[in-house]
Amino acid sequence: MEVTAWMVADRIFQTIFPLLAIVLIGFIYARKRPTDMSVANKVNIDIFTPALIFSVMSTESFDLPNYYPLAFGALVVILASGLLIWPACRLIGVKPKTFLPPMMFSNSGNLGIPLIVLAFGESALPAAVVLFLVENLLHFTLGLYILDHKTRLLNLLRMPMIIATLAGVAWSYSDMLLPPALRTFVDMLGQIAIPLMLFALGVRMTSIDFTHWKIGLWGAVLAPVSGLLVAVVLQPFLQLEPSHFAYLLLFAALPPAVLNYMISERYNQEPHLVAAIVLIGNVGSLLFIPIVLAFTL
């Protein structure tokens, strides 16, 4: 059957609309009723997201070695993006410590997981989780090291997401199945994670500050362009299967993670600039992501 431009546009709409609708609900609700999502975000990071990770990685259908090339591709996209953008920091007039983390570490949780699943179906969830894990592992190691060279990397082992990852991989290799009642319990916890991520993103969008719109605009363009350039150049060497290359392209086009702002605030690394980069970058993704979807669907 011939694929028409209308069919592609409809598929893009079917993918983007549910995400935007939940984000918009979070935005409208927080505008009318100022909302503190700190507790909900902590619960999501500590319970719901680890449950999602364990749910995906502990299934009998999850074949970890199948995702090694994709994981390596994500690793290179993150690192090479930082190297490409580093020289631009002087041109823009911003400190690398401020600008590079948002350019390297993308919104692979709040936006990446639901986007990939809606675009390619539930079968893409394991790949989306793998990409999310690569990004988070680098963010909590290299990302923190960029801001503070005294960061203790062993603290990673205390993170619920890392514990869930290790437990899920171990379980997948054990050839054991979770009892049905326990599987349902874990799955239901995990299903809370994605809608809550999107709602929290909408709440965060209420704090958009256009005071530093120029640096935000630079970030909105450089983050996806650098990532996509690296992914395209990398493909002839990795030879990813078409579906995995499509996932990598979407991952490369994602905007900066909201977590960048939280971490910059913690380390007092010009959080007002990072907030502009993150939030304007997420608004800019409304342009870049449909373009990438048009080429991958």
From TrEMBL:
<feature type="transmembrane region" description="Helical">
    <location>
        <begin position="215"/>
        <end position="238"/>
    </location>
</feature>
<dbReference type="InterPro" id="IPR038770">
    <property type="entry name" value="Na+/solute_symporter_sf"/>
</dbReference>
<keyword id="KW-1133">Transmembrane helix</keyword>
<feature type="transmembrane region" description="Helical">
    <location>
        <begin position="68"/>
        <end position="87"/>
    </location>
</feature>
<keyword id="KW-0472">Membrane</keyword>
<dbReference type="InterPro" id="IPR004776">
    <property type="entry name" value="Mem_transp_PIN-like"/>
</dbReference>
<dbReference type="GO" id="GO:0055085">
    <property type="term" value="P:transmembrane transport"/>
</dbReference>
<comment type="similarity">
    <text>Belongs to the auxin efflux carrier (TC 2.A.69) family.</text>
</comment>
<protein>
    <submittedName>
        <fullName>AEC family transporter</fullName>
    </submittedName>
</protein>
<keyword id="KW-1003">Cell membrane</keyword>
<keyword id="KW-0812">Transmembrane</keyword>
<feature type="transmembrane region" description="Helical">
    <location>
        <begin position="273"/>
        <end position="295"/>
    </location>
</feature>
<feature type="transmembrane region" description="Helical">
    <location>
        <begin position="185"/>
        <end position="203"/>
    </location>
</feature>
<dbReference type="GO" id="GO:0005886">
    <property type="term" value="C:plasma membrane"/>
</dbReference>
<keyword id="KW-0813">Transport</keyword>
<feature type="transmembrane region" description="Helical">
    <location>
        <begin position="244"/>
        <end position="261"/>
    </location>
</feature>
<feature type="transmembrane region" description="Helical">
    <location>
        <begin position="127"/>
        <end position="147"/>
    </location>
</feature>
<feature type="transmembrane region" description="Helical">
    <location>
        <begin position="99"/>
        <end position="121"/>
    </location>
</feature>
<feature type="transmembrane region" description="Helical">
    <location>
        <begin position="12"/>
        <end position="31"/>
    </location>
</feature>
<feature type="transmembrane region" description="Helical">
    <location>
        <begin position="154"/>
        <end position="173"/>
    </location>
</feature>
<dbReference type="Pfam" id="PF03547">
    <property type="entry name" value="Mem_trans"/>
</dbReference>
